[in-house]
Amino acid sequence: MDDAGLLMQQAVVAVAVVAACVYVVRRQFPQALRRGRLRLVLVLLRPHRAAWLQRLGRRLAPAPATGPVGVACGQSGSCGGCSPG
Fold first, then answer.
1. Torsion-angle region of residue 18: left (phi > 0), alpha (psi -120 to 50) or beta?
2. Quick one: pLDDT band at residue 79, thresholds 50, 70, 90?
3. pTM, whole model, 2 decimals?
């Protein structure tokens, strides 16, 4: 009986540590997380992959960047020095 309680306690601590790590990565390293997701998506979307893997890749694909990263040449009409294309 004592072993089950200890095992449950360790499982709860492990879940808390994993949740904290995920939170830190999402808050401190959003661009690295985005690049990692993009690499995974590119692997999943290869033509020879199974259809369910390609669907998973489309679902995991990060949303288009907004803000300073998304306002790159060609995406904004404000820079004036860029030519579309």
1. alpha
2. low
3. 0.54
